[in-house]
Task: structure prediction
Amino acid sequence: IILFYRQLALLLESGINIITALELLQGQMSNPSMKRVLRGVISDLRGGSQLSAAMTKYPDVFSSLCCRSLGIGEQTGGIDVMLRQIADYTEKDIVARKGIKSALMYPIIASIVTVVVVGVLVGFVLPAFSDLYGSLNAELPAITKLVIDMSNMLRSNAISIMLVLLIASALVMVYIKTPDGRYKLDKLILRMPLLGRVKHLGELARCCRSISLLFTAGLPLTEIMPLVIQGTNNKVMAEALHNVHRDMLQGEGLSRPMSKNDLFLPMMVQMVKVGEETGNLDTSLQAVAQNYEAEAEDKTKSLIGMIQPVMTLAIALVVGVIALSMVSAMYSMYGQTF
Result:
């Protein structure tokens, strides 16, 4: 989609009309879903629709914020410039989202590996050793007895444990789908150590870039805020922006309502205030977004650097305890024999 925005801007800048440009891009698209979307957009354009109006029919591909910005670009005659700004905005937004995903990827994979390793040990290795020790009537160390008893308990109640976990997971997923559940989950994420700070900075940076993009396009703040709220995934942030919008409509401006909520950090509030006073709100918000994105990237790297050794130690501890119980039992048997 980012490449589509950039290529379309380049074709329009070179003087090609919009329908021909879209047909050229459709012809070289390798993604069948995108080709189908462009086919629909071209059909609507031939029917007399504007590009922004045609794109609004595909909200899963083109966000409402991007479509609204394009609509302003169509009115001002600067659609190619607006397409490039939208491409930059989308690219930075994706980079920020990938940073959080990359931070979570390692612990998820490590957790899966740990579960598989422990499952193999509990399901196959420990039962074999347990039968061996039982046949020899050997006096086992306490740690070995504990591990074997836990293994037997897990194997005998495996189905019940799986059912409980599945039911609990299903109930949690259903609750998260509710407005109250989603709000509490988003609030919990923002309060998590390290990861919450990264998520918080990412949400603020996205908010700043969205307002800056629409303000640069020429949209008034009263129309910008509903679009920014609509484009926010975090319900806590959406509620905070809704309160800002409400107070703004009462004549309090933008910085003053933000100062009432701790979710908007002091630097953002101060820069918004400076932008309002100087008339350079878009530039001020761009600076804030860049600062928060840089901080979020730095904290993401630190988080990944900390998670890897912690997960490695956790895996080593689990496997090490099981291995120690087996080895200690062998030495105990050896001592009893001689």
Notes: Residues 23 and 110 are 46 Å apart (CA to CA). The radius of gyration is 28 Å.
